[in-house]
């Protein structure tokens, strides 16, 4: 006696549908993926049985028939960094609205992990969004040849890019510090593999040169609060009166170290962070920082990827989108000490 597939705990398959419909599994596959290739009576019978069994086609099966998986991968260098929370939220919402599933990968700030992940997911995803990629220009170019790709905060001539215009707000930060009488500034740098890190330092160099100020670069430091103690000690040794940190996490770690050493912020030293991450306004003192529409950057990246995946319905393809930034002034900055 043939077992009724509906009585099984396992999920129904096209083989179950084929058995009940009295047709080949290939006929079921065609009826569900390319209905115009199956006569109406057979197709209706198959669709009715599939509905009764509550059959859900697998992403692998869809991929075999249509060449699409319905999955887009989002790669970030550190999933614990709050800056990426809003990017992930933005891509998630926009992908869901577009009928796609998001696959999130933490590449651990490692180029080899990022490359290996991209290689392994080439056939299992329809496209990739790289946030703050650590890849070289050549590696990005090679990747863009093999799969639809959009980068966030990593400019490349070979793939559409969403840039968060941090350098403009860095200039605002230097103007703000100059207005308080600061003439010597320290930049607590982030990872050497970070493209954004180099952009921020270049903006600082240009801004201080135009304002008769001096800038010293220390680091590199991991973009975490744990690195803040070493960065704070190094910054104090320079004698500078103001600090611009690579990101808020590093700045918060520096604030904690200053408190341990009895250094008063902003009476003894001023500090500016970057990213306006959740909690930066809860610090003691609240952190002056660079803010940007991070969630919107994630949404825009998805829109740019959809234009590649579906040129007819995905909208006009853009190569570059620039997101504005601004300085959010709080209590961690003040007049330079006499």
Automatic annotation (TrEMBL):
InterPro entries assigned: HTH_LacI, LacI/GalR-like_sensor, Lambda_DNA-bd_dom_sf, Peripla_BP_I
Record carries keyword Nucleotide-binding:
no
Q: One Pfam annotation, family name? A: Peripla_BP_3
Highest taxon listed in the record's lineage = Bacteria
Q: Where is the HTH lacI-type domain?
A: 12-66
GO molecular function list: DNA-binding transcription factor activity; transcription cis-regulatory region binding
Which PROSITE patterns does the entry mention? Answer: HTH_LACI_2
Q: What UniProt keywords apply to this chain's record, in alphabetical order?
A: DNA-binding, Transcription, Transcription regulation
Q: Which PANTHER family match?
A: LACI-RELATED TRANSCRIPTIONAL REPRESSOR, TRANSCRIPTIONAL REGULATORY PROTEIN
Question: Would you tell me the protein name for this molecule?
Answer: Transcriptional regulator, LacI family
């Amino acid at each position: 006696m043939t077992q009724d597939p509906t009585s099984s705990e396992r999920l129904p398959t096209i083989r179950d549908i084929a058995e009940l419909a009295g047709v080949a599994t290939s006929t079921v596959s065609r009826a569900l993926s390319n209905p115009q290739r199956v006569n109406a009576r057979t197709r209706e019978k198959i669709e009715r049985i599939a509905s009764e069994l509550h059959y859900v086609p697998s992403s692998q099966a869809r991929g075999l028939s249509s060449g699409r998986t319905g999955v887009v991968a989002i790669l970030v260098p550190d999933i614990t960094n709050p800056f990426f929370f809003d990017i992930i939220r933005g891509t998630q919402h926009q992908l869901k609205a577009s009928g796609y599933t998001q696959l999130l990968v933490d590449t651990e700030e490692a180029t080899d992990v990022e490359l290996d992940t991209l290689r392994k997911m080439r056939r299992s995803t329809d496209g990739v969004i790289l946030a703050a990629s650590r890849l070289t220009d050549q590696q990005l170019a090679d990747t863009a040849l093999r799969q639809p790709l959009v980068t966030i905060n990593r400019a490349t001539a070979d793939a559409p890019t969403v840039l968060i215009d941090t350098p403009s707000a860095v200039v605002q930060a230097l103007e703000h510090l100059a207005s308080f009488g600061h003439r010597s500034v320290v930049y607590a740098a982030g990872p050497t593999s970070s493209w954004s890190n180099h952009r921020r330092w270049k903006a600082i160099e240009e801004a201080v040169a135009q304002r008769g100020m001096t800038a010293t670069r220390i680091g590199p430091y991991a973009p975490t609060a744990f690195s803040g103690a070493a960065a704070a000690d190094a910054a104090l040794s320079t004698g500078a009166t103001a600090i611009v940190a690579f990101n808020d996490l590093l700045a918060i770690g520096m604030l904690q170290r200053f408190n341990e050493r009895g250094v008063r912020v902003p009476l003894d030293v001023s500090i500016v962070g970057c990213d306006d991450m959740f909690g930066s306004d809860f610090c003691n003192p609240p952190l002056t920082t660079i803010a940007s529409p991070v969630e919107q950057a994630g949404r825009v990246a998805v829109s740019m990827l959809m234009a590649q995946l579906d040129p007819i319905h995905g909208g006009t393809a853009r190569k570059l989108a620039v997101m504005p930034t601004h300085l959010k002034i709080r209590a961690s900055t003040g007049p330079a000490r006499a």
